[in-house]
Amino acid sequence: KQNLKDLAEGQALMAVGTHALFQDKVKFQQLGLVIIDEQHRFGVAQRLKLAEKSKGELQPHQLFVTATPIPRTLAMTQFSHFDLSILDERPQGRKPIHTAVMSQDKREDIILRLQKTIEHKGQIYWVCTRIEQDEQAEQQATEEIWTYLQQTLPNAKVGMVHGKLKGPEKEKIMMDFKQGFYDILVATTVIEVGVDVPNAHIMIIENAEKLGLSQLHQLRGRVGRGTSDSFCILMYNQPLSAIGMQRLEAIRQSNDGFWLAEQDMKLRGHGDLFGTQQTGFREFKIAQLPEHFELLKLA
Predict the structure, then answer these.
(1) Nearest 10 degrees: CA dihedral of 190, 193, 197, 203?
(2) Which of 12, 120, 214, 250 has CB 3.0 to 4.6 Å from 6, enough for a Cys bridge?
(3) Which residues of 111-143 are buried (b: 16+ CB within 10 A; e: fewer)?
(4) pLDDT tens digits for 17-74?
(5) Mean pLDDT rounded to a whole number for the chain
(6) Cα-based angle 98, 102, 104 (whole degrees, multiple of 5)
(7) Mean pLDDT to the nearest integer, 267-291
(8) What's the DSSP call for residue 253?
(9) Distance, CA of 35 to CA of 198 (rounded, Å)
């Protein structure tokens, strides 16, 4: 209550928050700048709602930060709705991440590789896309993988984290992993952003074909934060659709989030620039994006 009062009266000059900042009860005396980090995780309506909290005629400046812009955002930069600032260099000392695409059948080969990594004191993320086993058993549940790894790698210390754990419990497991208490962390996509463990240099993603390009790129970014060679292994289930194959092939080819966002836009369309739809194809009478990007700039 005190924080809300301070913001409304202009006593607090800066507010740092989660989605909670979009709520109606959050009022500002005069909102001048909105910075949205990890912009791809927010909807169009949410971002508008925050900008509308400014009183009177003044529109707040907006800065969107993301390594993987969604198709609609990318198209908006191409139509000059946004000014663009690209940071395309790695932090010093970081090595590129090697990415491989493998079928689920090759899991035994991966286990042998993990054994060597653990012997050399390296750490590993193993990401699953569901918590419980679903009926078709297509998705590998975190619990099942956790049990499987304990059986196949009896000397390894395996931790597990997923969205159903309470906050403090999750924090403790993540901190234990960072401090080297676990060799392998089995997790859902909750580790997509904000996790920094320099000693973790292998990332395995189960059912990678189920995830979008930006999510795969964000997950891959959890490794490659130290000075060792890092690897990301994308595992898929047969049969793989043509679009699924294109997505995995794109992520294997490049570590550049903006190039990947362009491929995403080609695959999913850029949505409605004047509405709130974030993906989908809207054809122009003549121009096609991104092929005619240079012409568009000229125009």
Answers:
(1) 70
(2) 12
(3) eeebeebbeeebbbbbbbbbbeeeeeeebbbbb
(4) 988 888 889 999 888 899 988 877 777 777 778 878 877 777 888 898 887 777 767 7
(5) 82
(6) 140
(7) 62
(8) H
(9) 27
User: Tokens standing for 169?
Assistant: 């419990």
User: Between β-strands 184-187 and 123-127, what pairing exists: parallel, antiparallel or unpaired?
Assistant: parallel
SS3 content of the chain, % helix, strand, coil (to 5): 40, 15, 45
Q: How far is residue 71 from each of residues 39, 77, 120, measured CA to CA in Å?
A: 12, 10, 41
- Expressed in angstroms, the distance from the first to the final Cα of the chain is 51
Query: Which two three-digit tokens encode residue 120?
Result: 């050399």
CA gap 262, 245 in Å, rounded: 16
* pTM for the predicted model, two decimal places: 0.71
**Beta-ladder partners of 160:** 186
**Lookup result for tokens 């009926």:** 135
Q: pLDDT at position 81, please? A: 67
Q: Are 175 and 203 in contact (CB under 8 A)?
A: no
| pLDDT, tens only, 200-243 | 999 999 889 888 888 888 889 889 888 888 999 999 988 888 88
DSSP E strands in 50-150: the ranges are: 61-64, 97-103, 123-127
- One-letter identity of residue 188: T
Bond preceding residue 198 cis, omega within 30 of 0: no
Q: Which class for 16: exposed (0-12), middle (13-18), buried (19 or more C-beta within 10 A)?
A: exposed
Q: Are 124 and 204 in contact (CB under 8 A)?
A: yes
**Beta-carbon-side half-sphere exposure of residue 99 (alpha carbons within 13 Å):** 20
